[in-house]
Amino acid sequence: MKIVTANASHFKYAPIICDTIAASALVRGTGIAKRTPEYIQKKLENGNAIIALEGQTFAGFCYIEVWSHEKFVAHSGLIVHPDFRNQGLAKKIKKAVLDLSLQKFPKAKIFGITTGLAVMKINYELGYKPVTFSELTTDPDFWKGCQTCKNFDVLTRTEQKMCLCTGMLYEKNVVKKSFNSKAFQRLKSIKEQLFLKKNKESQKASLSLNPGSKYMESAKQKMKK
Ligand SMILES: CC(C)(COP(=O)(O)OP(=O)(O)OC[C@H]1O[C@@H](n2cnc3c(N)ncnc32)[C@H](O)[C@@H]1OP(=O)(O)O)[C@@H](O)C(=O)NCCC(=O)NCCS
To answer: Which atom, in ligand 1's list, is nearest to the CA of 115?
Structure first.
């Protein structure tokens, strides 16, 4: 497996990169910022991307986005082709894209936002720590990228202070601890209970079907709190 900084010689892989990202988003049921092959080609041309190839076959990809006039960079579009998953490839790609970012943008703060447990785990082990959104870029173009996410209304309701995603910021020389996936899963489910309107709405809908019962009255009280 070759994991390299991409360049113009990799232009032919742009369509398969876009298709694999779009197909995975469909499976996960998440919204996604649509990337065109032309947009991906720009990243390849600028040397702001990492590509993994098995021979001539596309295996994985990730690229760098620059925000707030190079004060912040984030890694985006991480994708491992289904044929190459669960072999540690995403970890290697993320490490390569982090090294590339440190080399090209040494003064930038490196951050990410994600709901994906795999990505949280990889980031954590690379030296990222969870932070509040106030520590991330305020560049409106970055947050515009969230508009296609199905949870965008949560971000709007909280005035961009929090969402289902966890913000993570890379810290140099951090003492690495092992990843506590249970804690992250718990945090995610607490956020879902707090923020997902549809939960409340479906609870309300079921309450209206059985008004007056003891259980319904106590559920109503809980929802008012
Ligand atoms: C998420 C994704 C990039 C992981 O790629 P991968 O090459 O299979 O990941 P790795 O093999 O490097 O796994 C890294 C770690 O994450 C864990 N992991 C992998 N997939 C996971 C999942 N779906 N849920 C929870 N943990 C997962 C692995 O067990 C591994 O942990 P370990 O070191 O304790 O074994 C890949 O599944 C993918 O492309 N998914 C669709 C796109 C996507 O979700 N991108 C991320 C957007 S934020």
So the answer is: 48
